[in-house]
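== Item description ==
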Amino acid sequence: MTEILNMSYPPDWKNFAPSTPDKVSPRLEWDNEKFIWDLDYNPPLVFIGQVSCPNGSEALVYGIRFNYNRCKCNVPQAPNNHFVDFVVLELNSSSSRTHHLQQTDTVTYSINYESDDELFVSEMSKAQINSLSVNSVPNWKPRDAVWPTLDDEPMSFLNQFPIIKSPVTKEFLTSNETVYLFWSETDNGSAFKITTQDTIYQSADDHYALENKLHKKAMQQKATKKKTAKKKAVKKKVVKKKTVKKKPTKKK
């Protein structure tokens, strides 16, 4: 049985009977290369957050990290020596369903193998983003964000979950990332997709904005220092003038 860990807080089951996702197996193939995992390898799921769906079901979001040192493969390994998948446990009053979301041909995490399933947020209008957001609009860097689609239609944005830095996320997941959950209703029920964004990543716009801010701050500090030095010089001159003793005049 897969172990369940909490990032910082347990899930709120509300009116749903407690349930756990189906066992999540790591991918066995990537770009025509085979993965051979250790037989006893069963990493824990880390609970990230939950949100209500428009169809009345509840979505519980988990992350799971697979370490390359527990498998044999010829696939180029990531610099951090692992990859992360996401799991959405969909609950309703009578049943549950596990959605194992992986990256395939795009940056979007999905159970579908679509080669083109995203829109550049920078090309979307504010009205379109507002209409597709179930609760609030995503808080992200628009220039670096993508919006998932399903069958060429943009999905609804449900919620975002920051992955906080903690001993649990450091060892079993990742940190300094935000998870964005999207949803669509299909003939086969709910469909979910996830995108992520590095919260410590600095885009080119952010870089130049920060440089400009630091330059202005340096100029202000220089001007303040110059002004303070000038005031001190004037004050010193006034004090010196006041303390100058007059030479006594000789009496005739």
In short: The first strand starts at residue 4 and ends at 6. The longest helix spans residues 204-243.
